[in-house]
Amino acid sequence: MINLTTRQSEIFEFIKKEIESNGYPPTRSEIAKVFGFKSPNAAEDHLKALKKKGVLNIVSGASRGISIIKEDLGIPVIGLVSAGGPILAQENIEKRIPSSQNILSHGVDFYLRVRGDSMIEAGILENDLIAVNKKTQIKEGAIVIARINDEVTVKTLKSISPDLVILQPENSNYSNIEVNPKTEDLAFEGTCVGLLRDFA
Amino acid sequence: MINLTTRQSEIFEFIKKEIESNGYPPTRSEIAKVFGFKSPNAAEDHLKALKKKGVLNIVSGASRGISIIKEDLGIPVIGLVSAGGPILAQENIEKRIPSSQNILSHGVDFYLRVRGDSMIEAGILENDLIAVNKKTQIKEGAIVIARINDEVTVKTLKSISPDLVILQPENSNYSNIEVNPKTEDLAFEGTCVGLLRDFA
DNA sequence: ATCATACCTGTAATTATATACAGTATTAAT
DNA sequence: ATTAATACTGTATATAATTACAGGTATGAT
């Protein structure tokens, strides 16, 4: 999608909200009123711009003939992460789950399919999907998605300090991973905010 | 919902279809045209009838001010099950999750909040929500929701025969539950088809 | 038998709405 | 420096749309 301006985003979001709450789209005048425009033509201009940018469709002559073009790709499900590249690279995306179906309380940036049994004692099994939020502040005690030298792993963050990060598997067969961020390549991809298991 | 007449259903379905495909509701004239009415007032009459029957809402004065009232209550989340009564009794329903948000591959009849730690070795922890399907055939090896003498429990179904049902907890601290369906009150509420954990 | 409801036609008026045209000011790109 | 895009005001008008009123017919219920 071509980037919308701040104003255009506001208008676009308003239209979406109206459709959601009323069940039908707003008129030019309604938009103008809400945004304080003194002319419905201001809204008309915005609609034309939004149509041009391909985010909505306008049926000429029809009242409220506005419909949003949903290009909502949904929340990506990350399968096996290939070494190198960013975690959200196209080749890692297994499928997408519509974001409207997000029933978790936190925002979910992506789902990661769990490989291995290192977290079974935390009730996280192989093939489960863990919901990951990228923005949540990384905290000790949380279950985090870390990348160590191109290896992506899910572990409990035991402790964090400038020269020592301890990642703890939740499986007594495995031992803690100790990383020195100064000498090793360590990045946090996000925090686990949910879990999804499908008994297919 | 009060029963709609055949004609009313046709009109109602058409309106829903229009909203789905166009993104906005039809006008009286559009309805009239599609159904061959020679007057938009025929459509008006139908809309009034449909409003009276509570299936849609009409905003007076607004063009296309039609919205369908969704009676979809969503999938119930069952908290603590009170002894006696059916599992889906009103007093057991903690909240509802819109069925449109169901991302699991099987149909989900309700979610059950897990109490206790008897299934931790199957990765099912306290407070997780397990998605339950009532219709799936109860099979050995599946995780089932059983009711034994008014006690609702989640266990793996180890074996089933006319006079002995063995339910296995997935926690080595607990031992198997053996029930004779002929002498004890045993009912299967459904099969676990998914799991949802929210790190709130 | 009468009444309510469903299901229409036909007309018409008010209002809601889209949308063109003519401007103005600001900002980002070439 | 000029052009294009953004973000509006202000006016005007054709037409889209709601919706009332006045009928008509058929059907099932009281």
Question: Mind explaining what this structure looks like?
Answer:
The structure is a homodimer of 200-residue chains. Chain A has 200 residues and is of the alpha+beta class. Chain A has 2 domains: 6-68, Winged helix-like DNA-binding domain superfamily/Winged helix DNA-binding domain (Arc Repressor Mutant, subunit A, Orthogonal Bundle); 75-196, Ribbon (Umud Fragment, subunit A), CATH 2.10.109.10. The first copy, chain A, is built from 3 helices and 11 strands, in the order αααβββββββββββ. Chain A has helices at 6-22, 28-35, 40-52; strands at residues 56-58, 66-68, 75-78, 93-97, 110-113, 129-133, 143-148, 151-161, 164-168, 177-179, 186-198. A 9-stranded mixed sheet of chain A has the order 4-3-5-6-11-7-8-9-10, with no helix packed on it. A two-stranded antiparallel ribbon of chain A has the order 1-2. The longest helix of chain A is centred in the N-terminal third of the chain and has 17 residues, at 6-22. In chain A, 28% of the residues are buried. The model of chain A has no long low-confidence stretch (mean pLDDT 82). Chains A and B meet through strand 2 and strand 11 of A and strand 2 and strand 11 of B. Chain A binds a DNA duplex (30 and 30 nucleotides) through residues 5, 7-8, 27-29, 37-42, 44-46, 49, 60-65.
What is the second-level CATH architecture of the largest domain in chain A?
A: Ribbon
| Average of per-residue pLDDT values of chain A | 82
User: Helices and strands of chain A, in N-to-C order?
Assistant: HHHEEEEEEEEEEE
User: What is the CATH C-level name of the largest domain in chain A?
Assistant: Mainly Beta
Largest inter-chain contact set: A-B, 38 and 38 residues
What do we call the CATH topology of the largest domain in chain A? Umud Fragment, subunit A
- Shape category of chain A: elongated
Strand content of chain A: 25-35%
The total strand number of chain A stands at 11
Kindly provide the radius of gyration of chain A, computed on alpha-carbon positions and rounded to a whole number of angstroms: 22 Å
In helices, the fraction of residues of chain A equals: 10-25%
Query: Widest sheet of chain A: strand order?
Result: 4-3-5-6-11-7-8-9-10
Oligomer: homodimer
- Poorly predicted parts of chain A: none
Give the class of chain A from helix and strand content and strand pairing. alpha+beta
How would a textbook summarize the main sheet of chain A?
Answer: 9 strands, mixed
- How many structural domains are formed by the residues of chain A? 2
End-to-end Cα distance of chain A: 35 Å
